Structure formats: structure tokens, C-alpha cells
Amino acid sequence: MFLVRLIYASKVSDMFLPGDIDNILATARHKNKKSGITGMLCFNSEYFLQCIEGTRSAVNKIFSEIQKDTRHDAIMLISYSEIFSRQFGAWDMGFISEQKLKKETIIKYSGNDIFDPYSIQGESALSMLIEFRDYLV
């Protein structure tokens, strides 16, 4: 069984409604638990940055579903790699809300004080997500 980690960024689309983040999390946690997927999601009302870990087939299937979700726009694959172990194995889908996105950490990994996942390289995105892991909900 091959494990992979996928990190992507996307923008909130015009189809996104205020309560959608709760729906996204509930659906993801339910599906992920059944599929053996783990990971985390950072969200700031404008952007998503998500890490998904699991078997290659499960991760590819989930990412394909995300690409069809009309609440996401401009989806960009930031990183995709085979892994030996999970970084977010304790969470079906951990969540970092805008209030918990630490400015110092964002600056450290992106050079900006504004959370914009499109400006972060793959390894930096993973390092930032690992640092945010302590604040997961």
C-alpha cells in the first residue's frame, strides 16, 4: 500500500455560502474516515489550503471530487508525493480557522503577512501546515 500526500490551494468561488465551511468539514470527515484519509484544512474566507494523506487511489479520488466542487475556484496542486508516514494521522480532517492562522508563521513560510497559499512553495506549505498542527480543531 502506497501512501501519498497531496497539498492544494483554491479560492472561494461565488457559489460559496457562509455556512459551507461547516458542511465541507462534516462531509470531509465522514468520507475521509471511511476512506482512510487524514489531513488538515486552513481557511480564511478567501482561500483554502488543504493537505490530504492516504493511499494513492483514495487521495486521487478525493482530489477529483474536490476539483468538481463548485465552491472551489482556481484549484492549484502545490505538492504531491509518496510518503512513509502521515503528518496528520490523528485527524480525519483537522481545521485551522482564520482566527488561528498565526501571522508570524505565515510570514516565516511565505514572506507575506497575508495568508495566500498561491505564494507558498510545496515544502514550505507542508512545513507551515505542520507548525499549525498544534492549533487543529
UniProtKB/TrEMBL annotation:
It comes from the Bacteria. Gene3D superfamilies: 3.30.70.100. InterPro entries: Acylphosphatase-like_dom_sf, BLUF_domain. PROSITE patterns: BLUF. SUPFAM superfamilies: Acylphosphatase/BLUF domain-like. GO terms for molecular function: blue light photoreceptor activity; FAD binding. Residues 3-94 form the BLUF domain. This is Blue light sensor protein. It comes from Alteromonas hispanica.
